[in-house]
From TrEMBL, chains A, B:
Entry annotated with the keyword Metal-binding: no
Protein name: Peptidyl-lysine N-acetyltransferase Pat
InterPro entries from the UniProt entry: Acyl-CoA_Synth/Transferase, CoA-bd, NAD(P)-bd_dom_sf, Succ_CoA_lig_flav_dom, Succinyl-CoA_synth-like
Organism this protein belongs to: Sporomusa acidovorans (strain ATCC 49682 / DSM 3132 / Mol)
Chain ranges of the CoA-binding domain: 12-112
This protein's UniProt keywords: Acyltransferase, ATP-binding, Ligase, Nucleotide-binding, Transferase
Lineage: Bacteria, Bacillati, Bacillota, Negativicutes, Selenomonadales
Length: 477, 477
């Protein structure tokens, strides 16, 4: 297997300057939005609009062409018509030859291969040939470009600059899917983002190279990918199998059905490939394939925040019977997870802190603290569960009784969770079933690295994904 | 098959007066909450606290026992210790013999059969024998009682009085699950509630009788049930098969696995039964079994708001490729739904209103309006799709471009949807992928009866559920 080297990819994420070809002065237009977002997010302010019809856009000098920008530009955003993209490609080549910069290009423009026409195909080929000839790298065409939350890069018209920072890097063939993910991140404050790459037609930079790059990117804790289909699946899977030894890769792969495959093809001209083969290959490579959009979202954010379980023995800590039943069903359904075994000493200890009517260990691994629970009981019980070596992970479920205060509950949970040193930590997923009534508690837990969920089965599926990945890591370390 | 007659069930939902035995004056205590909620929600104010230690609670005369309440009371809430419940049972019997009222009892108290002890079993038996002997009906024990949003009844300590009104009636063995559902209803404003019944141990009133009752309840458009397990599954299924000829029944059934079954047993002392047998029985009876909590929630609320599809031919209308691929995958996965066929005249008409680069019918049944879409295009295209007899339902997906205004988009969608008379309506599910950025649009659509979704696969699953139920109705009418 050939070694994949991610050449010049860092130019996309750490550019000295960004040129926006096609920048517009009309508020609301995508090409104005691109400039505004790039400007707002830029750490150093080296953003250069290019538009021969304008002298200035919102305080920035506007240049007639790429060649006249005096400062170094590493990243170029192409948002002009496909024909103009081809023309500008020659400027890029020239600039690269003359000044040596212009190493990275994101082509936002659409109207290329994804059109399914000869014209689109030819335009894409000519543009690509010109740019790649000079060693520059291209993301797109028909994409939304890149975001780097830490390095202050944003070439999109759709990702607001105030997306919260975190360890999830998302790589997507669908710009809309990835930007939705980032909007959820911002609105729900449940997930933090590091890098965002919208790949579009994937004419040059692809999943394989980005996997390689992000494997070594320190701030990326989880790689989350949306995939229509890929040309060189084998090479991608080979690389993924190496990357997953270092960090989790979560994938949502479209084209499960032949009709879905047809849609994928009209979207990014990609071939979805056989679904079962992908399933097997992902599993073998330690890639977690999400079963739904919700699963993708929750799994990625939880991997970012929580340690891996050391095994598959899960404790259910609850005050609500029905949701717990649903949770346990989903947890053990695939056979990968099981309920933990409570030792007699543990049960005796637990009984000291809970009310007599509490259910401790019926069935084994299950605790119902009942509605007579107090804030303190949460801390006491969690301390015991965190210390117990026969428990690999905890799912906690509640609709807190009215007399329990949001802050007090959150503090008690954190006290229990943080009672053991980092190396002894195990995943704790909290299902908060009471809507807005527990909003403050959720916020405090999330801010302190404890993921919260609205639905019990969502949490169970995430725990199974963590168990699966953890098993892969143990077998491949 | 014996005819099920729902005797005296209306006393729970239309009581002349409600007595709350065990009412407390201490704010925050569940027994105070029950009284407050009952008072706040009561249309006529006939709420009577019973507590021998108090003369008055928050402005209401407090009675020492049930027998001393001078006004008619049809519904009694028992929230005292199990032993006291047994004692009060004799008062209920006496009152019934003397005054003829007291026909309905909800037993909130826990500590009965669900304890798995001889004592709990004996207490339940004695209480039940005493109350049922005199012809009164019981919901519980170990339950949260009932809510009727239209008739102003609330016997719970957990369902806030301001739950939005609607056509979904929920019947649940899990109080926590059902109250969470109602909290989502209130917080997200996506679903409206008619009746709520928390069944608990189900010692008397059960699913079968409530199905019978709600089938004839005009304001109930959808019956949504959470089930641990039931004693007389055959009778329930027989009744459900009749009810589903009139209105949809959506079920989430716990105990898919043996571990889940064990939890269900500890919860409500019920036997979950064989999962595959339930699957088959539900399907044959036209009962929609939800696959997840999200599926349950979204399916119930959509049945309430939308007409049934007349067939299985679905049109995908979108501006976002990736989410649409996920949606189509999920839509056609079970083989029950398919993409619609666009006639040549329809395609020509569509092309008149869309930009040249729009994708009309690749694949068949699929339209990508592209990011060059306008508000008006939504109205124009939806009009054509609503009128077309070869399309049975529409899933619309968007992250609206920045220049499209929330209100304008919502109005255009409504204009398109409402361009045909009621009898010609077909389901239109809208997936709004842009988080809070489309919050206003979602609110307007929801208020006008158009359900909105965050994730494309959620909408697809709901559409499949509607198609399945519609097919059942056509085969059993």
């Amino acid at each position: 297997m050939a070694e994949v080297v991610a050449t010049n990819i860092d130019k996309f994420f750490q550019p000295r300057g960004i040129a926006i070809v096609g920048a517009s002065a009309t508020p609301g237009k995508p090409n104005n939005q691109i400039l505004e977002f790039a400007k707002q997010m830029s750490l150093h302010g080296n953003v250069y609009p290019v538009n021969p019809k304008l002298d200035e856009i919102s305080g920035l000098t506007c240049y007639p062409d790429l060649l006249s920008i005096p400062a170094p530009i590493d990243l170029i955003v192409l948002s002009v018509s496909p024909r103009n993209c081809v023309r500008v490609a020659y400027d890029i080549k020239k600039r690269r030859e003359e000044k040596g910069d212009a190493g990275a290009v994101t082509v936002v423009a659409a109207g290329f291969r994804e059109m399914g026409t000869e014209e689109g195909e030819n335009l894409q080929q000519e543009m690509m040939a010109t740019i790649t000839e000079c060693g520059a790298r291209i993301i797109g065409p028909n994409c939304q470009g890149v975001v780097d939350a830490y390095n202050g890069v944003n070439t999109t018209f759709s990702v607001p600059p105030n997306t919260p920072k975190g360890g999830v890097s998302i790589v997507s063939q669908s710009g809309a899917f990835a930007t939705s993910f980032l909007r959820w991140a911002r609105d729900q404050k449940l997930v933090g983002i590091n890098k965002f790459v919208s790949l579009g037609n994937m004419a040059d930079v692809d999943f394989t190279e980005l996997l390689t790059y992000m494997a070594d990117d320190e701030k990326t804790k989880v790689i989350a990918m949306y995939m229509d289909g890929i040309n060189d699946a084998r090479s991608m899977i080979d690389v993924a199998a190496k990357v997953t030894r270092k960090k989790p890769v979560v994938v949502i792969k479209a084209g499960k059905t032949s009709m879905g495959t047809n849609v994928a093809h009209s979207h990014t001209a990609s071939i979805a490939g056989n679904n079962d083969i992908y399933n097997g290959a992902f599993r073998q490579a330690g890639v977690i394939r999400a079963q739904s959009v919700a699963d993708f979202y929750h799994t990625a954010r939880t991997f970012d925040k929580q340690p891996l379980p050391k095994g598959n023995r899960i404790c259910i800590l609850t005050v609500v019977g029905g949701p717990s039943t649903i949770c346990v069903d989903e947890l053990v359904l695939t056979g990968e997870a099981t309920l933990a075994h409570f030792s007699e000493p543990l049960k005796k200890e637990l009984a000291k802190y809970l009310v007599p009517s509490a259910n401790i260990g019926h069935p084994d691994g299950y605790i119902d603290m009942t509605a007579s629970v107090t804030e303190k009981m949460h801390a006491d019980v969690l301390k015991l569960l965190m210390q117990d070596d026969d428990i690999d992970g905890i799912i906690f479920m509640t609709t807190p009784p009215g007399f329990i205060k949001d802050e007090g509950l959150a503090e008690a949970i954190l006290e229990g969770y943080n009672s053991v040193p980092q190396a002894k930590k195990k995943p704790l997923l909290s299902v908060m079933l009471a809507g807005n009534a527990v909003a403050k508690c959720r916020t405090i837990l999330e801010e302190n690295g404890l993921p919260t969920f609205e639905y019990p089965d969502d949490a169970a599926r995430v725990m199974v994904n963590m168990i699966r990945y953890s098993a892969y890591r143990r077998q491949n370390s």
